[in-house]
Specification:
The chain is mainly alpha-helical and 132 residues long. It has helices at 2-63, 67-78, 115-124. Helices cover 64% and strands 0% of the residues. The protein is elongated and about 110 Å long. The relative contact order is 0.10.
Length: 132
Amino acid sequence: MKRARARLTGLFGAAALVAVVVAAAGIFPFRQIIAQERAVDLAQVKLEALQTENDRLERQIVALQTDDEVERIAREQFGLVRPGETGFVVVAPPGETTTTVPTEPVIDRSDRQPWWRDLWDFLTGRDLLSDG
């Protein structure tokens, strides 16, 4: 009876070892496939964004061919005025400061995610990709 139990324990141990090896062999290619799919999706999103930006710039090129657009930019960005017009600048009173809005939001990425999230990212291959 003890021999049968020892043999059964050995079989279960070997089966567990084989299961771990098979799972590990399956996880790493699975991670690569998921990471590559995410890379393709990210590239498609970037392509769409670049195409949208390209369309916007093409419209801007067409608009810059008109005198009205050139005049608008000259007035807004350079403060130019036509002869006979009076230009003025608004200045803050002494002692007051003007508030400026930052052009780019600052994202604090110093906080770490929980360990289980790192493990999930490892298993799904998300750790192989950078979002940028």
